[in-house]
Amino acid sequence: MATGFLTPRRQGSFLRNDSSASKESFSDNLSTNVLASPLQAYKYENNRRYHAYREGSYWGPNDEQDAYHQRVAHHLFTLVLQDRLYLAPISSPRHVLDVGTGIGLWASNIADANPAAQVLGTDLSPIWHDDATIRPNLTFEVDDCCSNWTYLDEGRELFDLVHIRCLYGSIKDWRKLYQQAFDHLEPGKGYIEQVELSLIPRFWYTNTADEGAGNDYCSLDLESTSHTEELNSIFATWYKFWQECSRQTGKTWFVADQMAGLIYETGFDNVREIRYILPLFDCLEGMTSITTEGTTSIGEELMGGYSDYPVPRLQEIARWFRQFWETGMEGWVLAVSTRYMGWTADEAKEFVAETKRVLVEQESRVYYELVVIYGQRPSDSGI
């Protein structure tokens, strides 16, 4: 098989009848653009492009603006993980699956780092057509990870690493996805690893008796007046927005805080959770007590276990995390709010604009967490 190129799976699922394939309809807010190949069919809403294959199953756009956001996200995660592509204790993976590969940055990196490995990246959209992603040991396929996996039926080998990143709000049945990953990993060797952003805002206190402590939004007393600023924060509004997204779509946006338990319940062994802090504020001003000589004032659980986590790196992470928000917000809010919540596109864009103003003002001491989970399929498949 030629690798590094688009390889459609389950060909029949991509076919359209002639009548639908010959039509092109446009309106002010929504249009359908059907190209020569059904694999390259896209939907356009509010001047953003979305996937048409299994339309609506994923909320995010797949245009160049989103591709730039993915590059920012990849750089951010590389900074946080200190240039490591995964944390699972695998020295040299041979067969790797990247679920929801997007433009294929992680898959390309893992293929470069492991030239003897065979790497497969899958996504709903064929958006990886860049010469930079073509590798002799890398294949991309259009596929829906929520469908039944057919790799074993096709005679493929079991994977020793299944990688998932930033699929919050995209999966209705996480247990099924984890079970399919479990079934396709090599017993006693294969690992699943998932990287997700916890969307619960957390607030850093520097002017109270609890200096250096952080509380997540869920722990605040909604009836209290002591945390009025946090309760009225635009990031509290974002939290409520993602709650409503979860209710409206039936797909949770808060999988980062659930996945450790779900992966363990699936039957994985050696499940480990690592959390990293992602500040949205100036760390040198708000968190200078992070590293003092011989001590670490932030709990190591927030720093991924690294007691020597340097403040300058946190400063850089904070800058890139703000860029992550600035480049991603419109894509996060536009489709879901207009499809499910009755917002207009202008209302969605004003929400984004207001958030950008808050980010520039740097008054909110808010941070989030990047959560990494990995687990191993045990040798006894019956567990």
TrEMBL record:
* Stretches with biased composition (Polar residues): 14-27
SUPFAM superfamilies attached here?
S-adenosyl-L-methionine-dependent methyltransferases
Any GO molecular function: methyltransferase activity
Task: Kindly list any coiled-coil regions of this protein.
Answer: none
- Which InterPro entries has this protein been placed in? SAM-dependent_MTases_sf
Region Disordered: list its residue ranges. 1-27
Q: What is this protein called?
A: S-adenosyl-L-methionine-dependent methyltransferase
Q: Which organism is it from?
A: Talaromyces stipitatus (strain ATCC 10500 / CBS 375.48 / QM 6759 / NRRL 1006)
